Amino acid sequence: MRLLPIAFLGVALLFAACEKREAIEMLQPPATPAVLQKYWALPDFNLTERSGQPLRLADLAGKVWVADFFYSSCPGPCPALTSNLSDVQKALGSAPDVRLVSISVDPEKDTTEVLKAYAERFKAGPGWFFCTGERDAIYQLAHDGFKLPIAAGTPETGPVTHTTRLILVDQTGMVRGFYEGATKEGVSDLVRDIKKLLEEK
Known about the structure:
There is one protein chain. By secondary structure, the chain is α+β, with helices and mostly antiparallel strands. It contains five helices and nine strands. It folds into two domains: 1-30; 46-199, Glutaredoxin (3-Layer(aba) Sandwich), CATH 3.40.30. It has helices at 3-27, 78-92, 112-121, 135-145, 184-199, and strands at residues 46-49, 54-56, 64-70, 98-104, 128-132, 150-154, 158-162, 165-169, 175-180. The chain has a seven-stranded mixed β-sheet, with helices on both faces. A two-stranded antiparallel sheet has the order 6-7. The termini are far apart.
């Protein structure tokens, strides 16, 4: 008869331990996937790099690359966004199979000469491309290719309102991830996933 209360006590302790473990697991961040999701393939595009050379999708074949949209006179998040991309460049060192592609959403003002000066300001290496082109083509690439919003701005926000997302693209031109480029956490996640793609076979 004395064993019954002890048995109940054991069961109660077991349930309490399980509940505590579940509570701890709920507080932990979810594990990152071993394989990154494949979203969609990008369409071809024709941009002009600050060097004056054309940049097309085929020129990035075999490379893992990161795209962002910005403009050099941006009064808002663009300098922080570009600075964080500079941190990505530093974190990856001289990785030969990685490229960064910054695309201006104000191509009328962001000429190749303007982009050269902007790139020098952030100490961009040869694997970091700063691109301009036809406005309609850039907007179509953002909307239809990367599926990101870009719209006319206001006097407060500047001439263009655009996303601060960084987009990760694999060696075949497939979109593989989106990251908040204005935060250090987003940049850290991006660097982690670039390294994953470099290891993919």
